[in-house]
Specification:
There is one protein chain. The protein contains eleven helices and three strands. It is mainly alpha-helical and 237 residues long. It starts with a helix and ends with a helix.
Length: 237
């Protein structure tokens, strides 16, 4: 009994805190579907059969439905009566609206983030830009797009305004669904974009006016949209 009395008592709250909380079934379903949208297995217009997904995960339809609603709120999935859930359809107008909106909010996020970036941030961004340059000779559009997002994330993730940052994330998520890589249509745009990224870094390093940083980031985004629209106009027949 004496030994038992000397045994330390672990408070219930502390003991609970040490346990790893397993993700919910809804979260697992969300990650399952989201991963397949992101990597292109579920393409634009792909029909999401809730029962089939539930069967693959070994769960009921309820958590899958919750996950689909969450993806719908993010603009990655649409739900129509008599059609059901499907990955958001590719629409050129929707893509243009998303790019125009992202140009505004990402430009603002980059401006607000710029004063908080240090040498390490800029070094990482330059390393990624060098990888992008290396990709130009053996061009893989999907890989180029991944590195492009990594580059811009370094520059805007320090944005202190969480609402603007949330809009930027939503814009990137939407682009993933609408078009995996614009650069597959206009590969020449990839080479131009590398120089523009370097100019954005130069402006930040030199302590340029915040508005100049914002406009450079905005024009960089819009130049990609302009290149695609010119390509479509030339090849519309």
């Amino acid at each position: 009994m004496a030994d038992a009395a000397l045994k330390p008592v672990v408070p219930a709250a502390t003991a609970a805190a040490t346990k790893t909380v397993a993700p919910s079934k809804s979260q697992l379903a969300y990650e399952f579907v989201r991963e397949r949208i992101d990597d292109g297995r579920y393409v634009s217009g792909f029909r999401l059969v809730l029962g089939q997904i539930a069967g693959e995960l070994g769960v009921s339809v309820v958590p899958v439905r919750e996950a689909i609603r969450r993806l719908e709120a993010e603009g990655l999935v649409t739900f129509e009566k008599n059609v059901g859930a499907q990955v958001a359809l590719l629409q050129d107008a929707e893509y243009a609206y998303t790019m125009e909106t992202l140009a505004l909010v990402e430009g603002a996020a980059t401006r607000l983030s710029a004063p908080l970036l240090n040498g390490d941030h800029l070094h990482r961004a330059r390393l990624i830009n060098r990888e992008l340059i290396a990709c130009l000779d053996d061009f893989i559009p999907h890989r180029f797009t991944e590195l492009n997002q990594q580059f811009h994330s370094v520059l805007f993730e320090e944005c202190p305004n969480p609402h603007i940052l949330d809009l930027v994330h939503r814009g990137w998520n939407r682009l993933t669904v609408l078009r995996d890589s614009t650069f597959s249509f206009v590969p020449g745009r990839a080479r131009e974009s590398v120089a523009e990224r370097e100019e954005i870094l130069r402006l930040i390093e030199s302590g340029a006016e915040p508005l100049d940083v914002e406009l450079a980031a905005r024009e960089h985004r819009l130049a990609t949209l302009d290149a695609l629209q010119r390509y479509q106009a030339e090849h519309q027949h």
